[in-house]
Amino acid sequence: MNNQQAAPKIILVGGGSCSGKSTLAKNIFRELSPRTYVERISIDDYYKDLSDRDPELLKDYNFDSPEAVDAKLLFTHLKTLLAGKHVKRQHYDFKTHSISYPGTEVNPATFIIVEGIFALYFKELRQMAAASIFLESPADIRLIKRIKRDRVERGLDVDFILRQYCETVRPMHDLYVASSVKYADLIVDSGKFDEVTNLKKAMNFLSERFFKHHGVSGA
């Protein structure tokens, strides 16, 4: 495969909160990296900067609505990458609700993995993508993982996590995320199978789609 001549291809990885999207995206990145040039983008880093808002008011902010994402900037960055130009990498801090710029760049790549709960929801993303994967997982499993993550990584207490889940996470999932499974080229059951099995399934799918004529087998 000639990486320099290959047109960039976007791989979408979507699914509910704490369904295993980031883990699968990282594992795909790791598997593809020795073969070709890969970049990974998290839609979480495109939440709107809210650092000027009252922290108390943010306790009721709906982060699980598509309106919370700066979709226009995300689309612009991806179009720029598809055009062969680099973009400035940004990071969203969920503790301060602010955007920072680590100083590294996202460069044009053979594959650009884009993961997030709205990866398959936005029509414009789907139109840019060459492949899409959706992770399914039972709601109770996702909630347990979310509680563990939010307590450790975001310093939130259980009562707040549960209230947020009931008021926004679950209803927004039902409204915007769950239905986007119909746009998936591949559905992976992260509640039923382990990471190794799901990675193998994803890599077999990607190898068949992109490397079929290049003698590359799955993970």
Topology:
Elements: E1 9-15, H1 21-32, E2 38-42, H2 71-82, E3 87-88, E4 91-93, E5 98-100, E6 105-106, E7 111-115, H3 123-128, E8 129-136, H4 139-153, H5 158-177, E9 186-189, H6 195-210
Parallel strand pairs: 1-7, 1-8, 2-7, 8-9
Antiparallel strand pairs: 3-6, 4-5
Helix pairs in contact: 1-6, 4-5
| Shape assignment | globular
Number of contiguous helices: 6
Which parts are unreliable, with pLDDT below 50 for 5 consecutive residues or more? 214-219
CATH class, anyone?
A: Alpha Beta
Sheet with most strands: 5 strands, parallel
Percent of residues in helices comes to 25-40%
Description:
The protein is of the alpha/beta class and 219 residues long. The protein has one domain (9-214): P-loop containing nucleotide triphosphate hydrolases (Rossmann fold), CATH 3.40.50.300. It is 37% helix and 18% strand. It has 6 helices and 9 strands; from the N terminus they run βαβαβββββαβααβα. It has helices at 21-32, 71-82, 123-128, 139-153, 158-177, 195-210, and strands at residues 9-15, 38-42, 87-88, 91-93, 98-100, 105-106, 111-115, 129-136, 186-189. Strands 2-7-1-8-9 form a 5-stranded parallel sheet. A two-stranded antiparallel sheet has the order 3-6. A hairpin with a 4-residue loop joins strand 4 and strand 5. It is globular, with a radius of gyration of 17 Å.
